[in-house]
Design the sequence.
């Protein structure tokens, strides 16, 4: 899958709630209370009067709520407004931190990584002012940030952020995980080693794969060129793998091994917003059927850029062929970094090693495509307009 990079929002909201705590109150107690009651949009909007003493925390919380509802641009307006009104006192540092944090998350969700980095750095400069009780959370948050930097190829920055996070809280799990990742050799001939213990692939004699590409013309902003784009992604894998796989287009979904579906908007998998997904069915030890889902809009009402869609297609086709885990090298099409346009030698070498290895996947409890669509929050096509 290609995820839309963003830090777990539930986490941020819980940090945000601390902003409401009076300095003398035990934050742990207040967390809960405020989390459940005050992050309500209507309630928060009542406190936006110019003289209202809760105007500032309400603006910050409204930014958080907007992020939670996947409205990054709206969130930016609230955070920037809050920053412009913020008196420069130490008491406000937590609000200020949250605004920069929120702006950083918003930027990464809009795939504006450079802008995101700038805001994350501003937020990080504020951590010395934050109460120690927030350190484990801040540290974990920066662990996620470090990981997102890793995934977008900013390795040196990632290293610095992860080390700083560990200084705040040496037990931060995600930081340790990211550290291990940094030690991987990014220039090895392939990244087979990160594929884990389970090899899920097509049978050896399955070299011709029948593909049905759905017609998305009932979807808003559909462009018939997307069909060509999908074919181009398939052909790229076919030629770079030296015809190890050949793709044959079929006109009926029943004749297909693989179906490429279009989703109006982003999807959700394991709590993460994603722009592309690949889901497989396994019969016996081998893949018997695969569904690829690509979204047309990566933000509400914003059409996905064609280059990004192509790279998403290339990436999901790689998953479809059996590369289940991501490459740690941001240059590879199978890295979780979106935007890659070229299938690299490492991508192909990894694929070839997968097919030199016995499939050893144990058939999971079956899940139907309908159930899967529900799971990824993808409505039925007819309801998508
Ligand atoms: Zn992926």
Sequence:
């Amino acid at each position: 899958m290609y995820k839309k990079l963003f830090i777990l929002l539930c986490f941020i909201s819980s940090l945000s709630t601390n902003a409401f705590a009076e300095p003398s109150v035990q934050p742990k107690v207040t967390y809960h209370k405020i989390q459940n009651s005050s992050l309500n949009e209507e309630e928060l909007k009542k406190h936006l009067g110019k003289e209202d003493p809760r105007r500032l925390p309400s603006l910050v919380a409204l930014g958080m709520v907007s992020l939670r509802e996947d409205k990054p641009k709206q969130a930016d307006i609230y955070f920037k407004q809050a920053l412009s009104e913020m008196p420069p006192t130490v008491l406000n540092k937590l609000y200020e931190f949250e605004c920069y944090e929120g702006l950083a998350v918003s930027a990464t969700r809009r795939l504006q990584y450079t802008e995101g980095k700038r805001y994350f750095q501003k937020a990080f400069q504020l951590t010395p002012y934050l109460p120690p009780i927030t350190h484990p959370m801040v540290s974990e948050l920066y662990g996620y940030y470090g990981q997102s930097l890793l995934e977008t190829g900013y390795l040196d920055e990632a290293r610095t952020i992860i080390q700083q996070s560990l200084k705040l809280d040496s037990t931060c799990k995600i930081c340790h995980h990211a550290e291990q990742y940094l030690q991987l050799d990014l220039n090895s001939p392939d990244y087979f080693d990160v594929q884990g213990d389970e090899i899920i692939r097509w049978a050896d004699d399955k070299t011709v794969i029948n593909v049905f590409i759905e017609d998305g013309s009932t979807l808003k902003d559909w462009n018939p060129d997307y069909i060509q784009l999908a074919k181009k992604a398939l052909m790229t894998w076919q030629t770079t793998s030296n015809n190890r796989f050949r793709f044959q287009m079929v006109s009926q979904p029943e004749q297909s091994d693989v179906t490429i579906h279009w989703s109006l908007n982003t999807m959700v998998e394991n709590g993460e917003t994603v722009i592309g997904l690949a889901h497989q069915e396994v019969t016996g030890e081998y893949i018997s059927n695969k569904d690829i889902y690509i979204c047309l809009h990566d933000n509400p009402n914003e059409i996905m850029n064609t280059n990004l869609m192509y790279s998403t297609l290339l990436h999901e086709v790689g998953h479809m062929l059996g590369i289940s885990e991501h490459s740690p090298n941001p240059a590879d099409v199978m890295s979780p970094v979106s935007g890659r346009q070229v299938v690299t030698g490492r991508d192909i070498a990894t694929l070839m090693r997968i097919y030199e290895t016995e499939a050893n996947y144990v058939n999971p409890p079956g899940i139907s495509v309908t159930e899967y669509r529900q799971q990824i929050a993808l409505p039925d096509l007819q309801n998508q307009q």
The longest helix spans residues 93-109. DSSP finds 14 helices and nine strands in the chain.
